[in-house]
Q: What sequence folds into this?
């Protein structure tokens, strides 16, 4: 079983839609959680950290469920510019991040 | 300010040749990471440098791969006797990490696209 698993997608949604991605992790000792965004042929960039209490940044909401070992990302009012691959990232060992393979989102007009 | 830079941006080489990839991290960042990403795949951790500590080489796929970090700054990833399966984008990232402190954001460079013919 992979340490971090994501549905690869693609998720094809119209502008204005709400879309949610889930990610599961295998190591219950995982400490920190993040969502990174990667545009086509570009480097990954931090989208947001994921806190135990859940957190929101504009149209983006991240949640953590430690009991079930999954993380979610909700995007409301999707924009064309949201089209990208979203990487679920987990800190398992100190200073080292484990990346999921990503979920591809395509927003169409 | 300047971000993480990598060179070359693209490298085409013949099977069996050695290649060197360079990473210049953000000034002041203590931690430096190398990853590789094959087409349609996730990021594969290769090696991690933190300050003066011994590097974490647990992700290096074979002894053909090695990396150095000189003066706590610039890093070079060397692949000897390249094989076709080494073709990938090699990404470098840096972050500021205090020993025992929380994990900080990793900032990625644009990557080096390596093609082994």
A:
């Amino acid at each position: 079983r992979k340490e971090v698993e994501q549905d690869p997608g693609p998720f094809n949604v119209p502008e204005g839609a709400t879309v949610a991605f889930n990610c599961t992790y295998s190591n219950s000792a995982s400490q920190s959680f993040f969502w990174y965004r990667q545009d086509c042929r570009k480097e990954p960039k931090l989208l947001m950290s994921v806190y135990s209490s859940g957190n929101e940044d504009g149209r983006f909401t991240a949640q953590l469920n430690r009991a079930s070992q999954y993380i979610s990302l909700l995007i409301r009012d999707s924009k064309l510019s949201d089209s990208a691959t979203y990487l679920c990232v987990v800190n398992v060992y100190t200073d080292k991040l484990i990346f999921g393979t990503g979920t591809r989102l395509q927003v169409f007009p | 300010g300047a971000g993480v830079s990598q060179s070359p941006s693209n490298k085409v080489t013949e099977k069996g040749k050695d290649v060197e990839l360079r990473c210049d991290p953000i000034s002041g960042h203590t931690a430096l990471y190398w990853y590789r990403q094959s087409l349609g795949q996730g990021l594969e951790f290769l090696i991690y440098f933190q300050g003066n500590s011994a590097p974490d080489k647990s992700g290096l796929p074979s002894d053909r791969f090695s990396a150095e970090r000189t003066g706590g700054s610039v890093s070079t990833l060397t692949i000897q006797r390249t094989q076709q399966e080494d073709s990938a984008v090699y990404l470098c990232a840096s972050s500021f990490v205090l020993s025992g402190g929380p994990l900080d954001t990793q900032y990625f460079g644009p990557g080096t696209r390596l093609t082994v013919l």
Observations:
- The radius of gyration of chain A is 13 Å.
- Chain A has a mean pLDDT of 92.
- Chain A touches chain B through 18 residues (CB under 8 Å).
